[in-house]
Amino acid sequence: MDFLPINLRLRDQAVVLIGAGVIAARKARFLLGAGAKLTVIAPRQESAFAALGQEYDFRFEARSYASGDLADAVMVIAATPHRSVNEAVYREARERGIPVNVVDSPDLCSFIFPAIVDRSPLTVAISSSGASPVLARSVRSRIEAMLPAATAEVARFCRLHRDRIRAAATGEDDRRRLWEQVIDGPIAQLILSNRWQAAEQALAELLESHKPATVGEVYLIGAGPGDPELMTFKALRLLQRADVVLHDRLVNPEIVAMARRDAEKHYVGKRRSEHSVPQDKINETLVALAREGKFVARLKGGDPFVFGRGGEEIEELAQAGIPFQVVPGITAANAAACYAGIPLTHRDYAQSVRFVTGHTKDGKLSHRWEDYLSESETLVFYMGLVGLAIICEELQRAGRAADTPIALVERATSPQQRLITGTLATMPQLVEQVKPQPPTLIIVGSVVDLAARLRWYGSG
Question: Same structural domain for residues 322 and 427?
């Protein structure tokens, strides 16, 4: 993070603006809108400033900047076309310990202006740390479209009733959950619909019936194959509501970072023959945290019910009487196939698909290999990289042709995704050469041949 986002109270504070051009007028509008006592210093002012003077009161001094002009300021902005003047302003500001911004000169800035979505008292600031103001404005336009103008009324409602909600809550967690019910529930929708009186009544009923939660809830969330954009809306909403996050090894750290900043985050992942936290302990932890009144997000790579042991976890929760929700995720087979350009089913090649575990035990794979001989069925092996040679050998021994196409999709949906194709006969030796790393998914069947025609780059 190059710049720390903060909100400054500038009302009745002395701010100096050096320059009176078009860009300076834009900065002045922000400052005056925040209630600053603005002094503008420039040899002359352009028409934009004349128009600004019809809306706001500020002091204009028709002269050049001189050393000492910043003596009483709490903030200074330099917006002149002269580098030497801007540098002088910057030096004096730094000497006096005053925050300074020099327009279009990130190297002369101790702070920068973000792009702002204004739904006062709610404001959203977007910054590219000076790298690309156009990008920041583009993001701002998207957020503008997402936030109705009436969002400002929701913020005013919250400010008006802040003390009532604080009084009704028994602690920080309870207060936050009350706010979530107000903001994410029907009360906010009533305000957005301009039904303020109904919202007041709904809040009164909520506060009257409110009781602190004695038991929390567990959200079993499928985090998908890795690409954060493949998370569902519901998964993101529940993740950001959680007090505690337990996450697996295959969950992208960017997804874990989407949780609330103050949420506890615990790694409970597993590698082959290396279980940092045994499954029984994970189950016990989920129950214990919920009994403490915590709301817990259990993040699992892919889908929690496809080789994810999610069934074991909710079985334990059900036996303990713990409320839970399950949020499906995009399983690795679907994501890897799509990003690699391999349709798992195709009218001309495969009419069914089978998901199979490739996890070995004592160096063996116990499957009815004779069930996997249909050329019109795609086979997808999870966790099969270590047992790849066994898979290829057993399929051939059971009757699959040696030239049956096979693909390995390494680190699917990530920027490092790699597709390796071959046949049942050639793949074991090819793997020895290219050495793919987990997580790697194995796809077997004639649909693999379509990848050469259908694969695209920059998928997703």
Answer: no
The active-site residue, picked from 27, 248, 294, 300, is 248
List 118, 173, 265, 270, catalytic entry: 270
Cα angle 257, 262, 263; round to 5: 70
CA distance 308 to 289: 21
Burial of residue 116 (CB within 10 Å: 0-12, 13-18, 19+) is middle
- Residues 355-378 have pLDDT tens digits of 999 988 888 888 999 999 999 999
Tokens of 419: 């597709």
Q: Is residue 460 part of a domain?
A: no
Range of the domain at 160: 151-209
Q: Residue 284 has what pLDDT?
A: 95
Report the C-alpha dihedral over residues 106, 111, 117, 120, rounded to 10 degrees.
-160
Looking at residue 410, which CATH number applies to its domain? 3.30.950.10
- pTM, to two decimals: 0.74
Q: Is the pLDDT of residue 1 over 80?
A: no
309 torsion bin: left (phi>0), alpha (psi -120 to 50), beta (else): left
Cα dist from 40 to 49, 74, 350, 354, whole Å: 10, 14, 73, 72
Domain co-membership, 314 together with 370: no
Q: Is 270 a catalytic residue?
A: yes
- The DSSP symbol for 223 reads -
| Residue 325 backbone dihedrals phi, psi, to 5 degrees | -130, 145
Average pLDDT, stretch 22-32?
92
Residue 349 covered by a domain: yes
How many structural domains compose the chain? 5
Looking at the structure, tell me whether residues 271 and 288 fall in a common domain: yes
pLDDT band for position 460 (cuts 50, 70, 90):
very low
CB 25 within 8 Å of CB 48: yes
Is the same domain home to 35 and 80? yes
Helix (H) or strand (E) holding 61: strand 59-62
Same domain, 1 and 30: yes
pLDDT (mean) for 220-232: 94
Q: Are residues 249 and 228 in the same domain?
A: yes
Q: Is 248 a catalytic residue?
A: yes
The answer to whether residue 442 scores a pLDDT higher than 80 is: yes
